[in-house]
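[step 3/7] fold_predict: job queued, chain A
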Amino acid sequence: MVQRALQISQEDSLMLFGARGTGKSTLLKQLFPPGPNLWIDLLKPSVEARFSRDPEELERIVQAQPKLERVVIDEIQKCPRLLDVVHGLIESTDVKFVMTGSSARKLRKGAANLLAGRAFEYHLHALTQIELMAEFRLEDALHWGTLPRILSLNSDSRKRSFLQTYSLTYVKEEVWAEHLIRQLEPFRRFLEVAAQADGKIVNFSKIALDVGVDGKTVQSYFEILVETHLGFWLEAYHSSIRKQIRLAPKFLFFDIGVSRALSRTLTLPVQEGTSAFGERFEQWVLLECFRLNDYLCCDYRFSYLHTKNGVEIDLIVERPGKRLLLIEIKSTVCVRADHLRHLEAIGHDLPDAEAWCMSRDPVPKKTGNVQVYPWQEGLQKLFPLDNDAPVHAGLS
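[step 4/7] structure written:
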C-alpha cells in the first residue's frame, strides 16, 4: 500500500489528469469504490462505443437513479462529448462527477468546455520519494523511474519489458488511435530523439533535421507530449518576460524510466560517477520539485538560467513573498567550493537571491554564500509538509 501525497476533495466534482500508468484509477477506486458509486470505464471498447453513439445515455442513467450521489468516468477523453452532458447534470442535479483523463488535447479538441469552475482539477504524477518512503532507492529511481507498476516487478527483465511496452502502448493508444498525428513513423523517431535530449535545452532545428520534419511539426509534437502529460517545459529565466519567451526552454519527460525506454538506453547501467548519472540525478530532483509543487499547491514558478558566458544554474525558484532561490544540483557525495563557483558568481549579480546546492553529500554545510543540503533535506525545506494533512491511500 502506497500513500499518495495528492489531496483530493471528496465533496466536489473533479477532473484528475495524469499520464497513463500513474495510478489514477487505482487511487479513485480507493476513494470512490464501485458499488456505492457508479463507474463508467471508457477504456472498455463496448462502453466507449455506447456513449460515443449516444452521450445523452448518461443523463438517462442518472435520472433513473434518484439516490445516486457520484459518477466516476474513467479516461473521459475517449468520449469528449460526455463533458457537455456532465456540465448540464452538474448544473441541474446534486450528483458529483469524478473524471480521469490522460489527454487534455483530445478533450479540448472534441468538447465545448472543460467544466471551468464547475469541477476541481488535479494532477497525479509518478511516485515521489515521500510516497515511497522506506521503499525508495535512488539507484532504482534513476534507472527504472517510479511508475507504480514498477514496484510489483521483481526482476530487471520484467521492468525493462514493462517500460518498453508502455512506450509502444503510448504511441499506439494515446497518439495514433486518437488521431493526434497524421504520420506515425516521424513521431516515433521524434520520441527517441526528444528522449535522448531529456532535460537539455531544446534545439528545435536540430531535432527537426534528425527527425526529417519541419520545426513547426517538432513544436506540435512537443505540445502533444505536454497535453498528454508525458512531459513539461522548464523555461529559461529572465527578469523580462518579453525576453524570456525568446529563449529556448528545456523539456523534461514525466518519468525517468519512460524516458530511458523511449531513448532505448534501458540496457545501459546508470553508473555512479558518469555524466549520465549526474544528468539523471538532476532530472530526478527537478521532477520531484514539479511533483511536490503541484501536490502541495505552493504556486512556485520554475525556470533555469543560462548566461551569455555559458554559465548555467539548474533551477530558479520564484516563491510568492520570498526571495528568489537559485539551486545547483550536484550528484557528488562531497561538495567542494569549486563545484559552486558559478553559483557564487551569479549570486553576486543577484544580491537579493538565496543560493542552495542540493546533492548526495550527507552533510549540510555552508560554502561562501551557498547553503549545501542533502537533496532530501533540501526538498523538505523547499516543500515543508503539513503533518496534520491526511494522505490518500492508493494500492499502486
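[step 5/7] annotate
Residues 145 and 257 are 4 Å apart (CA to CA).
The domain at 283-382 is CATH 3.40.1350.10 (Trna Endonuclease; Chain: A, domain 1).
exit 0
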